[in-house]
Design brief:
This protein has 223 residues and is an all-alpha fold. It is built from 12 helices and no strands.
Length: 223
């Protein structure tokens, strides 16, 4: 039955499995850096903004403009423009390794905004109470902002990972490997439609799993 529906996919199961592994590798490795950097920049944006607990308008303006700058660049252009930097840092600009740097630059600004939005939902009364108790800035960040924003952080992380999957597929178009490369090399270039459909199905499954995990974490931490 499957031989009639997806014959071209069954001819190359190893290539499909390798593509899935490459996509997961790009997502996990770049996602780890994006999570750390996004949290860091999200915190800086929140505490240094006008009226923030550690207001610093020059620092806020510089960081805010940098994030807006990188968010405004289409990823495919960012991918090409960062090839020299990828070679410098990773030793190559192609394959899974070469895609890590552009993926970090492409998704970190987006995630930083998600964190900023999550922190903006924290009740101002809690912040005022913490300040009245004499809490330091680090204590307010970890004990108030992070503690009260877990659902928002989970939601933002889920959205970012799903977006990151899309970026890895786009990176596959310029030699990064993964499911994007698999779909283009076999599905598009060789006109093997079943390869394209299976690739889409695999991506839908991955997105569904990520979404389910994110919703579970979010619901568990709503109070």
């Amino acid at each position: 039955m499957l031989e009639k529906i997806i014959p071209n996919v069954l001819d190359k199961p190893d290539a499909l499995l390798e593509s899935i592994q490459e996509t997961l590798a790009m997502t996990v490795w770049s996602g780890a850096f994006i999570f750390i950097l996004g949290l860091f920049f999200g915190v800086i944006l929140t505490v240094t903004k006008p009226g923030g607990i550690c207001e610093n308008k020059p620092l806020f303006q510089v960081l805010d403009k940098c994030i807006n700058f990188f968010r405004s660049i289409p990823f495919i252009i960012l991918l090409a423009s960062l090839m020299p930097l990828s070679r410098l840092i990773m030793g190559t600009a192609i394959g899974v390794t070469g895609a890590i740097v552009p993926l970090i630059f492409g998704a970190t600004p987006f995630f930083a905004r998600q964190i900023e939005n999550a922190f903006a939902e924290v009740d101002s009364g809690l912040l005022e109470a913490a300040q009245a108790m004499g809490c330091s800035v680090p204590e307010m960040v970890f004990q108030v902002y992070f503690k009260e924003s877990i659902p928002g952080i989970a939601r933002g992380t889920t959205i970012t990972i799903i977006s990151l999957l899309g970026l890895t597929a786009m990176a596959g178009a310029v030699g990064a490997g993964g499911l994007g490369d698999f779909a283009i090399r076999y599905g598009h270039d060789r006109n093997q439609v079943d390869v394209t459909y299976v690739t889409v199905l695999v991506l839908v499954i991955l997105v569904s799993v990520i979404q389910s995990i994110g919703i579970f974490i979010e619901k568990k931490n709503i109070h």
